[in-house]
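Run log, item B.
One chain of 364 residues. Sequence copied directly from the ordering sheet:
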Amino acid sequence: MFLGRSGVRALFMGIAAAMLAAACGSSGSGSVTPTSVDVGSGSLTGAGATFPAPFYQKAFFDYSAKYPAVTVNYQAVGSGGGVSAFQKGTVEFGASDVPMGDADQAKVPGGAAAMVQVPTTLGVIAITYNLSGVSKLQLDGPTVAKIYLGHITKWNDPAIAATNSGVTLPSSAIQVVHRADSSGTTYHFTDYLAKVSDEWKTKVGVGKAVSWPAGIGAAQNAGVAQAVTTTAGAIGYNELAYVVQANMSQAYLKNADGNFVQASVAGATAAASHNTSVSPTNFSITNEPGATSYPITAFSWVFLYTAYTDAGKGRAVVYLFKWLVTDGQSDGTSLQYAALPMAVQNLALANLKTVQAGGKSVLT
């Protein structure tokens, strides 16, 4: 069973409208760059991850308000769609919560040398649920894995009851919801499950798209959010911005130190502090140690070409993301995304320096 596109679109448009209202009511995020610098011009098109989409929609609106000569059309089609669009050259930038590996980079015209990967934000994936009468739900990783493996099918299962002393759990069936599309959110969710469940690791594995043992599929973060909020007894996984905007219930998840924590900006920051050498080949920060670390935390990335023949657009895309990974981070923190750690921000700026526009380096 899959949700209709109209339902998914309606929920995402509602979330986007809230982001736009927030943007209109803000005064922006400070100076982008000295006014004497040519920040380029043109209409930029990007596509990809839904995980950072609320942040991107607000940030791109704010940037265009400061620099009207630059507009951005971002299509939140999922990480897999972002990779595909970038490989086909139909966008100025692609977006994914998972960096491209060698095989994907080989499909980009010019190969790995023709592109660069830039981290843009840091977020958390909440375990969402719809269970009448249960205002606080605590789950551990192995239990979540067994639910998604189809082994635990009732809400009053002893494994769930064991972490919810004093809570009256119904005997109703658990309605498992997962992503139907190729998704970076799914990659990080399954990366976490593989770390807490050997059975998940061997039988299902880690990926943007996997063979799900149980449940129904929904397209994009907005689709999963809609399915969970409209289905009694449902459980799903969503980036925190969607949880807050849709007023969803989220479980407390047991972290590596044994503490039950909810998804939060602080939990993302704590988890990210344990990977001090982030790169496109070393990006996983799920199930990190720490008393306050949230277990399902992830960076999101954009792909840029290292050479843009249109000098105006090339400069525009570089200066856009220079702002987004520095001053623009405040647009994310207001929407439940954590600011990039300084070392990761420096990585982003260093990678942006590899991009040329009209045959010349944009940043030095």
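Observations after the first pass:
- The first helix runs from residue 5 to 24.
- The first strand starts at residue 42 and ends at 48.
Flagged for discussion on Thursday.
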